[in-house]
Design brief:
7 strands; alpha+beta; elongated
Length: about 170
């Protein structure tokens, strides 16, 4: 791991990035289970990420069965941050969270609005994970690759740190 990225810096960067581009891959952490694209709404103060879904999906039914551990894999749109976070999944129809995170994109999936009988909210309580941060972007990454090849060294691709969101 990089010695120039602390866990606190990595965690702060993760929450900031998730607020700016909040789609990643979420799934149950077990062999053979396929993750799916989901939009997450983060609460850094609790280490929780909330996801809207429909209760008629396999994923929602599996989470509703209880005791599920999940994995959220994330890459920022600008490619400056990647993360893989492990945590507990649960159905939690918290009306205050539904009201707080409701927006026109979410509303498009629920014809009856917030009263739609299929509306389901999944709570992901983040635990341990790993976050990779690079401030260079694609151009800087290309420069690092070119420099490494010319100087027979390894590229500086940024920092990585283990985090504990729980």
């Amino acid at each position: 791991m990089s010695d120039h990225l602390t866990p606190a810096e990595a965690e702060t960067a993760f929450w900031k990035s998730l607020k700016q581009s909040n789609t990643g891959m979420l799934g149950i952490d077990r062999p053979g289970y396929h993750h799916q694209p989901m939009t997450g709404f983060g609460e850094p103060e609790t280490g929780t990420i909330w996801f809207f879904t429909r209760n008629d999906t396999d994923f929602a039914r599996d989470v509703a069965a209880g005791g599920q551990m999940g994995m959220f894999c994330y890459q920022a749109k600008d490619e400056k941050l990647q993360a893989c976070i492990h945590g507990r999944l649960a159905i939690d129809l918290d009306r205050e969270r539904i009201d707080r995170f409701w927006n026109p994109v979410v509303a498009a999936w629920y014809p009856d609005g917030k009263a739609d009988p299929h509306l389901t909210l999944i709570r992901f309580d983040g635990d341990d994970g790993r976050v990779w941060v690079s401030d260079t972007g694609m151009l800087g990454f290309g420069y690092q690759i070119l420099k490494a090849n010319l100087t027979k060294s390894t590229p500086d691709a940024g920092g990585v740190a283990d985090v504990n969101l729980g």
